[in-house]
Write a structure and sequence with these properties.
This protein has a single domain, classed as Vaccinia Virus protein VP39 (Rossmann fold). It is 33% helix and 22% strand. α7 links the parallel β4 and β5. Strands 3-2-1-4-5-7-6 form a seven-stranded mixed beta sheet, with helices on both faces. By secondary structure, it is α/β, with parallel strands linked by helices. It contains eight helices and seven strands, in the order αααβαβαβαβαβαββ. α3 packs across α4 and α7 packs across α8.
């Protein structure tokens, strides 16, 4: 992180050194038989065969790696070097880029994307005040008709400890200002109908 980059809430909460621990936690969950690929399954259902995907806030790369296994052209980007180190070791053939999502440009990532996915509470873990410019920056990376898919918690039970919530109204407003139109919204990655009481939202916006 350069001196002028604002610290994300993720960095404030973790110190940017939790990559190995984060990966180990998901390995333990996978060992219990829990489906670890709900985000990738939903994204794959929305994409053309071989579509191009940006995993924005990719962490250790779980979503991008699964989508690449399914035949999609994936790029991962994150601000946390410790998370990217795990991703690069696990799947060295996928481009893993370190960048601030609020300042990312087409020059950084190359060709436009059919879909940009923000999984794992990326939205509430952004730097304070950066939501509008982050959504705007990601919208520019989409092809015409491309999709921005974001899943994040709405209450304390679905957010990391100490992380404030992001109201859906603020997220929707940022999307609207960036020229995106909401196409769908679910309470889970497996398309359960959305209710505020569910405490979680998966939003699909189209440009």
């Amino acid at each position: 992180m350069t001196p002028e980059e604002p610290r994300t809430r993720w960095e404030e909460l973790t110190g940017g050194t939790s990559g190995a621990d984060y990966a180990a936690r998901f390995e333990r969950l996978a060992a219990t038989g829990k489906d670890m690929h709900g985000e990738a399954t939903l994204c794959a259902s929305l994409l053309p065969p071989g579509g191009r995907v940006l995993d924005a806030g990719c962490g250790t790369g779980r979503v991008a790696i699964r989508l690449a296994e399914l035949g999609f052209d994936c790029v991962g980007v994150d601000v946390d070097d410790s998370m990217l180190a795990v991703a690069r070791t696990t799947a060295p053939s996928i481009p893993w880029l370190r960048a601030d999502l609020s300042a990312i440009t087409p020059v950084d990532v190359g060709e436009p994307f059919d879909l940009v996915v923000l999984a794992g509470n990326v939205i509430p873990l952004l730097a304070t005040g950066s939501l509008p410019r982050t959504v705007a920056a990601l919208a520019v990376l989409l092809r015409p008709g491309g999709l921005l898919v974001a899943g994040f918690g709405l209450d304390a039970a679905h957010l990391p400890a100490g992380c404030p919530g992001t109201p859906l109204e603020e997220y929707d407003e940022a999307c609207t200002r960036s020229g995106l139109v909401r196409a769908d919204r679910f309470s889970t990655w497996d398309r359960q109908p959305f209710t505020e009481a569910g405490g979680y939202a998966v939003s699909v916006h189209r440009n």
